Amino acid sequence: MSKKRFTRGKFLAGVAPVVVGAPLAAAHLGRAGGHPEQLASHAGHEHARLGHAAMIGADVPAPGGPNDLDALLKPPPALPHQPGRVREYELVASDRDIEIAKGVTFPAWTYNGTVPGPVIRATEDDLLRVTFKNGSAHPHTIHFHGIHPANMDGVFEVVGQGESFVYEFPARPYGLHLYHCHTSPLKKHIHKGLYGAFIVDPPKPRPPAQELVMVMNGFDTDGDGGNNFYTVNGRAFYYAKYPITVKRSQTVRIYLANLTEFDLINSFHLHGDFFRYYPTGSTDQFEYTDTVMQCQGQRGIIEIDFSNTGIFMFHAHQTEFTDLGWMGFFNVVP
Amino acid sequence: MSSVAAKWQAGTRWRLWALLPIVLLVGVVSTFALAGSPLIDLLGRNPPPADAFDVRRVAFQPGEIRIRVTNPQRDDLTIASVTVDDAIIPFTLDGSETLGRLRSSTIVVPYDWVEDEPIAVGVTSSTGIETVEEIPAAVATPKASGRSFLGYGVIGFMVGVVPVALGFLWLPSLRRARPEWLAAFMALTAGLLTFLALDALTEAFALQAALPSAFGGAGLVLLGVSVSYLALTLLGRRLSASGREQGEGVAASGLTLATLVAAGIGLHNLGEGLAIGSSFALGELTLGTFLIIGFMVHNVTEGLGIATPIADRGVAVSLRRLAALTLLAGAPAILGTWLGGFFTNDLLGVVFFAAAAGAALEVVTEVGRQVLRKAPGGLGSPYVVGGFLAGIAILWVTGLLAG
User: Fold this and answer.
1) How far is it, in rounded angstroms, from Cα A237 to Cα B41?
2) Predicted TM-score (pTM) of this structure
3) Residue A162: its pLDDT value, please?
């Protein structure tokens, strides 16, 4: 603490930010006196909250209702290997205000109305055909990660307002990839929300599992070049309010990708257990750990065989991100 | 028709004519208001509102932080999310979630804050704009109790009443002083008060600058200065008229002048007490013996200022009168520390400091007239000029002690 010098200026500094007063104090006194039961229950409520190390359930300030994000959390099923099969998707860019934290809206640029955009899934050697229509007020593209021809890269073929473009290429290699807009200024087009997960399944199917998709991101709601909220799948604290129920009897497979803008890295940490982490999901090599980190654009596949039932937390192990919304729970049942 | 009636009718007509601009103004304003946005459409879109909150007070209680916020803008503002040290935390509201213009709510946050450590609270609007208030050191906000009431009272007494009373002890010496020296001390009083007026004006403007612009800007200060100046002028005339100086003209002198000086200094001490009290209450000042001593030395000259006008041997002053003058000048400091300590309000602060400035200026005028009348050699005499400059210099130097 800096040395305090008493000056008239300090007096001013003292009075200026303050203000209050009698009306405030009187209002409190009046309330306390008028409704003792209300005050008592109120206080009890707060103590209950303070009693937990983390917020969970109904007390969590998270937007929306249960199962709102299922379309983003649960990917479409993998299809068996069948070279040359056409997989068609349609993505429409639109500008929308979305609720990204309890009561807080963000003027987003979206693919199909959500941030992140829909999960695109194909099996290796499928012919992927993605029709992109730009209904946004700004020019956009879709840039897929993976192996594809130069003219399908979504870098030079900028799609103007009202225009459309068809991306067509064989899906490979297998693994977890991304897609995102690649229009300049890139930072703006990504942090506004134009990205999503792109799963390419291997020719030899992965073992059955409870599959989940988690796209880690952040939202700079006041335009100061730093994120005000961090989420998985677009809503702060959503999975703290609505824990993800999984069975202990079956492997949990998480397709985890990082599309956080402004911050160098993001991370995933699981409480109470370890998991296998397959970077990019493109080989059989894995790391056995409980914490992984990814820079923007990195992704990988997590496989958890839960040892115990109960409530287990997962969150970014940058505690700041945790506190600003990137935190949730698994409810592991037998 | 008689000419009287015609005259009356003509008078009425012109009175009605005077209403015409007002009627037309109402018409234009309502047409413009009803037409809605065509003018704005012509000029292009308005920029979006800033959506920043005005954080008025952050109070710390064991296990709890209370954040008072006001909506300073025309558009409604909704409290959506609250952070403490960059962490979103659950909160309850004492007041409305959506705030109209200049409406306030108190955000109540259960939080285990750390004593003496810096802390930042953030309030985010529904549009995602975060207003962050950084507190240099978290200190428990004192609750009103008998002890703290007494404590603030003692501080006010020490910095207000005691120095003024001590200053009065110069009275016997002043009574034996030669006229030119008495004039010098009168000029010294004027110097002191000029310093205090400028000081109070600066504080009023600084406080006013921190208020939401909707509160009328610098005009509020001007209003405070003018009202107190005119009120004191009126008070001076009343006192002169009812006193034995009747017939001496409008200029106040003797006991009247001393009363005016005491009233002016009292208003200043009220503002000073308010500032001290609120600074202590917010933990922005460390209470120290040296600080109190500094203020006492600083304010002792105020007693001298009040004593000088009654130093004239012709003026009889009872001890009771002296005590009354002391209380008039010093006791407001006690009231100020209580107000500042328990019900700090920066709008009140602006008004008090502006009033203090106006009062001090008025008294400078009165003292100037008195000096002009009584001083051997008039305003230009070296005693008067020297006294005036010495008054300013003394307050500046003793102010360093308090700083």
Assistant:
1) 41
2) 0.76
3) 96
